[in-house]
Amino acid sequence: MMRMRTAGLVLLAPAAWLALAASPAAAAPGEVQTVCASTLTPSGWVDVSWGNSISCGSTTAPNIKQIKQLTGLPVGTTVNACASTYQPAGWVQVSTYYSSSCRYSVVPSLEPNAWTLKRVS
Asked: What does UniProt give as the signal peptide span (predicted)?
């Protein structure tokens, strides 16, 4: 009986993690979600910050990111985003700059790694 209970917990843990890391498909415009860095940033979303978390494995390199849903935001909206993803259709870069929260590599650099994006259509 104890062995079955332990096996059940072992099987439920990954299922719970998958529920927490569910697809951001049904997110509201402007919503921010945190995902492991190995997760591809979906279309219509941009990376807004990078960091480390033991929940996504080794913390020797940035392994977690926050992503923001841009689909549905009104024309004229501006958003700061990391240059680790392309801007979605209908958005243009209005400036580039360096942001310490957008360091997605262990190699330090002070080169521009972030953008201010503006919705134009």
From this structure: 1-27
